[in-house]
Amino acid sequence: MSAKIILSGLLAVLLAGCGKHEEEEASAPNVPSVSVAVTEVAVQPLWDEEEVVGNVEAAQHAVLSAKVTGVIDSLKVAPGARVARGEVLATIDAREIRARLDSAEAAQDQAKKDFARIERLLQSGSSTRQEFDAVTTRLRTADAALVEARTMLQYTEIAAPFDGVVTRKLIEVGDLATPGKPLLEMENSSLLRFECQIPEALIDRVQMGAGLPVAIDAAGVALTGKVSEIAPSASAGSRTFLVKLDLPPAEKLRAGQFGRVSVPVRERPAVLVVDGAVVRRGQIESVFVIEDGVARLRLVKTGRRHNGQVEVISGLSGGEKVASRDAHLLRDGAAVEVAP
């Protein structure tokens, strides 16, 4: 008899608790709906790409060498210096060449006098044609020697062939310069290109004048390079072709930086959503699909990113409407209003 009383009491307590819970739910205020922007998941053609590594190089690069023998008399620049076209960067001791120039000028002056004298004598009949031809030849020889001496004197000044930056200094004041000996290196840092070795299996995908995406991580930039040069033959050892792409100006871009160019391989359909629609929490990626005014959590796996969009490898098939802004503020089952 006492057990029945105890059981009746427990049931009464449970019923009272349930009634109280139902009253609390009934009295709880309605959760307001969230206003979200919505976009439709699109199926678009996407190119699969293969990355090829390379380096940024200066389009204009020069190794400045001596054309005459002499001691370096002065060095006016250091690595990193910006120079203008025609600016003198170094000079070679020109005393010996100046002496040759003085001798050539004196020889030319004497040849001119002899030519004028013989010309007058020829007109008066006091000279022969052979003598006139001889002084004419001597004058021409003197003129040529003078031009050569003046040219050699110009070679004692090492000038910049274009506007650019000095990158290496290979000599010091007092060193002996000889013809062909490198003295300085410089490049035009405003004209840069990307150079890479494209495997022979991909070279058919690269065309002259085509634009290819180039990523330079050190500079934090993604550029479009224009193919300006393709080697006509492959390297025998690596079976690759040298390809050069002209790059647009970028503030942090420097010669020598490492980069990657993406070469298109094949086109295929892909499910794409705007990058803002993907919610990332640790290693888990998800989107909120909007169905009948309710946000439904959908786990997804993403792939490549392209022009503000991200490829969804699994989880969406296309045509769904997803929250594209402030998606991280939603929860599964939340009521939403589509923002205009």
Compute the CA-based radius of gyration: 41 Å
Class by alpha and beta content: alpha+beta
General form: rod-shaped
The CATH architecture of the largest domain would be Beta Barrel
Identify the CATH class of the largest domain.
Mainly Beta
**Lateral strand order in the biggest sheet:** 3-12-15-14-13-16
Please tally the helical runs, counting DSSP H or I stretches of 4 or more residues: 3
Low-confidence parts? 1-29
Question: pLDDT average, as an integer?
Answer: 85
What's the gist of this structure?
The protein is of the alpha+beta class and 340 residues long. The chain has three helices and 22 strands.
Features:
Elongation Factor Tu (Ef-tu), domain 3; alpha+beta; 340 residues; 4 domains
Structure, explained:
With 340 residues, this protein is of the alpha+beta class. It folds into four domains: 31-48 and 269-338, conserved putative lor/sdh protein from methanococcus maripaludis s2 fold, CATH 2.40.420; 49-60 and 188-265, Elongation Factor Tu (Ef-tu), domain 3 (Beta Barrel), CATH 2.40.30; 61-87 and 161-186, Beta Barrel (OB fold (Dihydrolipoamide Acetyltransferase, E2P)); 94-155, Orthogonal Bundle (Helix Hairpins), CATH 1.10.287. Helices cover 24% and strands 42% of the residues. It has helices spanning 2-27, 95-124, 129-154; strands at residues 34-36, 38-40, 42-58, 61-65, 70-75, 82-83, 88-92, 157-159, 164-169, 176-177, 182-187, 192-199, 211-216, 221-230, 240-246, 258-274, 279-281, 284-291, 294-306, 309-314, 321-323, 336-338. Strands 3-12-15-14-13-16 form a six-stranded antiparallel β-barrel. Strand 18 and strand 19 (294-306) form a beta hairpin. The two termini are 69 Å apart.
